[in-house]
Amino acid sequence: MLELVPVTTESKPTADLARIQAAFQAQRANRWVMSRTTTAERIARLKRLREAIIARRDELAEAIHQDFRKPALEVELTEIHPTLEELNHTVKHLSSWMKPTRVGTPLLLAGSSAHVRYEARGVVLVLAPWNYPFQLLMAPLIAAIAAGNTVICKPSEKTPHTARFLSRLVRDVFPENEVALFEGGAETAEALLELPFDHFFFTGNPRIGRKVMEAAAKHLASVTLELGGKSPAIIDETADVQAAAERLAWGKFINGGQTCVAPDYVFVHESRQQAFIDALKAVIARFYGATEPERQASADFSRLVDAAAWRRVKDLVDRTVAAGARVEVGGVADGPSRYLAPTVLTGVTPDMAIMEGEIFGPVLPVMTYRSRDEVYAHIQGGDKPLALYVFSQDKRAVEDVFRNTTSGGAVVNNVLIHVANPNLPFGGVGMSGLGHYHGVYGFRTFSHERAVSVQWMKSLAAVFFPPYRGKAQEWASRASRLLE
Q: Is the pTM for the entire model greater than 0.70?
């Protein structure tokens, strides 16, 4: 029997403007206290957060399931584990990250030394999305705390059960003058964007990203934008088609396709198309069920987050099929439960509706190519993607792909896994984002890198002091040229 996901009728929290202002002022008053905290003090805060997450992981899984029926194991793999991994990595390395970094000094400045200090930006804002509502709020929060900032967070109103869980978690772990969280919709976001934060961190779509950037510009504040885009996957004639089908199906349909780094479409070499489609059909049957009723009843497949998202993706499929694309598997949609089957489309051309923008749903369009130049022309002609995936056994071909494309991140012979590595920067380029985080990159994003020169000994620069004439001028001119 198909389990329905009821649409919540609860009223959304309204903006508590007085509390927002009070929290901001309290954090501004406390920001210097926080910026002077030691490594041990920051680690203690992070460990307290880790303990609270571990103690409440079942409660979190239930909250996310209520929002869009996400399977418990997916919650563990994509929400809880990455967050704990980020926490553990930060706790392990924070001491070394916080130390000033010595840099070299040119000969002209002999007698001095130089280093870079990492200082808290101050009061920072984190605006989180709904698709990974826990992990995509926690990861920047961890980095901001590690860097010594005070933080105000806002989760998405589209996942109200998770937002309430986050509100309780943050309130129980942190005093409000260190970390505060506000639920609510557009009114709350707009109220927060009016405040003069020292750094704005936003994850979401480019349309809202522009508004965040405009708000940051009013205060000449720094900004990080984690956006999205149409991330391509390329399967060449040497690829292991079975492995490609398994990994692409997993990466595309996890979280109901609502993943910013999901493979958005596939370019497969024409000689491998049928083998790839056959393998993909078998994988979908194995993952979610051999028949449509089995797939609808599967407990391993998420639903779209709301009715608007369901209608948008269904419309893309309907218009694409009407334009001549073929449904190889899936295509079934059920409005009351916000179900859209894992769907594969072939015969897709770049001018079809499904290729207009990021799909953000469980639909995989497949296009064929003969020459990689066709693929490059298409990718180069669009916005820069957040991720790029290439399946090949030819290392020279892979290198050729990298030389002719750009993306925020890339994976060879797999998908998504770069996001799980805290040693790699995560972020976009161009329309897919601005700035990056994870691990030390997150620590630096939420830090001001202060350049410091120290003069303890006599300075050679004194020979360049005025007046600029006579023997001193001649000697200084010769010396500067010798040092070029």
A: yes
